[in-house]
């Protein structure tokens, strides 16, 4: 459901302040991707297999 279609004040708030919820969701996704990349131990496991 689009909040702006039922409460026009949100359009004004987003215009004045920016879409904080969308910005927070984007930041959370970027953090999740960075954490997944940082905590990916598959490369370490593969390197161990090649040295044995």
Strand content: under 5%
Helix content: over 70%
What characterizes the major β-sheet? none
Morphology: rod-shaped
Q: Count the strands?
A: 0
> How confident overall, as mean pLDDT?
81
Count helical runs. Answer: 4
Low-confidence segments: none
Decide which structural class fits the backbone: mainly alpha
Using only C-alpha atoms, the radius of gyration works out to 21 Å
Provide the succession of SSEs: HHHH
Report how far apart the termini are: 55 Å
Keywords:
single chain; 52 residues; mainly alpha; 4 helices; 81% helix; rod-shaped
In short:
Helices cover 81% and strands 0% of the residues. With 52 residues, the chain is mainly alpha-helical. The longest helix is centred in the middle third of the chain and has 19 residues, at 20-38.
Fold and architecture overview:
- With 52 residues, this protein is mainly α.
- The chain has helices at 3-6, 9-17, 20-38, 42-51.
Helix and strand layout, with pairings?
Elements: H1 3-6, H2 9-17, H3 20-38, H4 42-51
